[in-house]
Amino acid sequence: MTRLLPLATAQLGPIARDEARPAVVRRLIALLEEAASRGAGLVIFPELALTTFFPRWWMEDPAEIDAFFETEMPSAETRPLFEAAARLGCGFHLGYAELAPDGRHFNTAILVDRDGRIVGKYRKIHLPGHADHQPWRPFQHLEKRYFQPGDLGFPVFEAFGGRIGMLICNDRRWPEAYRMLALAGAELIVLGYNTPRHYPPVPEHDHLQDFHNHLCMQAGAYQNGCWVVGVAKAGVEEGCELIAGSCVIAPTGEIRARATTAGDEVVFAEIDLDRVREIRAHIFDFAQHRRPETYGLLTEAGFHPTM
Amino acid sequence: MTRLLPLATAQLGPIARDEARPAVVRRLIALLEEAASRGAGLVIFPELALTTFFPRWWMEDPAEIDAFFETEMPSAETRPLFEAAARLGCGFHLGYAELAPDGRHFNTAILVDRDGRIVGKYRKIHLPGHADHQPWRPFQHLEKRYFQPGDLGFPVFEAFGGRIGMLICNDRRWPEAYRMLALAGAELIVLGYNTPRHYPPVPEHDHLQDFHNHLCMQAGAYQNGCWVVGVAKAGVEEGCELIAGSCVIAPTGEIRARATTAGDEVVFAEIDLDRVREIRAHIFDFAQHRRPETYGLLTEAGFHPTM
Fold this sequence. Notes:
Two copies of one chain form a homodimer. By secondary structure, chain A is α/β, with parallel strands linked by helices. The first copy, chain A, has helices at about 20-35, 60-65, 80-90, 145, 175-185, 210-225, 275-280, 285-290; strands at about 5-10, 40-45, 90-100, 105-110, 120-125, 155-160, 160-170, 190-195, 225-235, 235, 240, 245-250, 255-260, 265-270. The longest helix of chain A has 17 residues, at about 20-35.
């Protein structure tokens, strides 16, 4: 059997700090149109796709911070993207900064169906970086300051003819995140990322950023027998280089398609959701082979090894 | 700081079904001597390193089955290996089939220090394959018939100047296994494997066996910031091809050294256990970034996704 889903990665090049939402939305719509013209029914945009990656700056003025956040979705400024989705019959995954009505801030992603309706939401759980000002860094990574950890768990949504889960950026480095989604039945995991090439605490690993990016996603795909689609905000943004390498990864862990620029770029791939069975009904048949009774430490709160 | 540990992989080529223990032990000693002559203080041998990979055959006679198992360690036949270790000042990791005094059967590995004393034992938890006779297969994979799941958890041992954990073969495909050891403080994970090139249920993946082998171990190393050493029984054994690719993997996920034959082969590498901090004190700082309160499903017994 086959269950085909034509999709596309929509990698974004840099977004300037002063680039207004309408201009960004126009870029997103152009990518959506290109993807739809090639037959895509689902387009994956990156993390925080409506603004520059603002956690690189220390800010104290709440108004300045909140200007990077969305208080409603769609809003007047983002509605044209939803309308384009409905017009084109092409859904999308979009990351953005969410300011909830109760004042909480999240690093969020949504799944929007072919009618332009939101059918799923995820809030990033593994926030990287730090909460304090560290002036020694050439740029900050203040996700622990500007966001709270996601409170929606790892939900899986029935959509696009399959079961879809979402992760966001640093989540993709954590095997627990993929496994949670796979245990909940995910056949396709979509995610976006903003990953600086330079990691100030351990700069001697900068040359490994692309390798680590693909290693984690390929292992996540294979070890959970699911498709993984990872999409970058890439290129030199406000003086900070972000890695590219957006890709579609099969349940075998093989990279099926990938971007080859560091700018706005659509990569199309038709995937077969039924290929999940090749792995998950055999080598990673969870019911047959997992041993959850031996995994106690994994969920032990506050347990940390001595170093 | 550096904490150097000179070690070696001791890949084994095929062991014939009728090859007697003393002949195998002589091969192991030759590899130990070669490794020690190059400065190794620890040699890693494969899984089930004393016999052919007998789970490929359906057997019903308990005496025939038990002939592949060790009832004591060391025994008269294996003692020369322990004596060689003490003489050379070179410890080892060895996999073998264990028949416990109470009649239980395990797929086991031990860690033996430079004095030739056993300082750690692990019993394989993730048993692959099947328990029933499946004559349609060109060869069986009866680990679920011949072994019980390990009952020792995922222990970590203070030895060789560091903290060492062990896995066995199929364990290395499961991210939970690496994580359990890393949470218990492991800095180095050693393991052996017998992996047929041909996987009868999904033969269309046979060409990916080497890729999957390294993908899992490299991800396990990087995502846990520890060294991983994986050692194969390799080559065409009783008509069944086993993959090779024994290797030493750094906490960055990079392959530091690897075997380039499918036979008996020593590969030497000096590793620095203090490099664990490069990863585990930063990008994978568990205390800072893990969210165990969101991982409930991971330890839920009997939970299996719908397919």
